[in-house]
Amino acid sequence: MSFQRYLWTLVAVAVIAAYGIASGRESDASDAPSATALAAFLGCPPAEPKHATGTRETVACEEGGFDVTVATFDDNAQRDAWVESERLTVIASGFAGLPAALVAGDRWAVTTGDVPAADRLHAVAGGWRV
Hints:
alpha+beta, 4 helices, 20% strand, globular, Secreted protein
């Protein structure tokens, strides 16, 4: 692992940990985790987040031969709608024998084919995993 990648991983872990600590209090959309930090945790290079319909921020990349999509939302209702549409894709991929995982938490969600990375994110950030 390069030093820059290691540094981004540490930054992402710090952001996710701080977010986890703060999750016990009332929060608003500005408290949602950064899509860039979550993507960095999964090994994506630094990227400018995009704004897609139904999301606050979206970062998409390919890491280790796997597609990674990280999305953050203004509220969990938006997250739930996005997750519902992505859940079918993840389940279909599993039936086709392709690796796929969906991890979601408070106002964020991640899809990736890198199942071990999804499990690490789930272990660190909590939420739930499909």
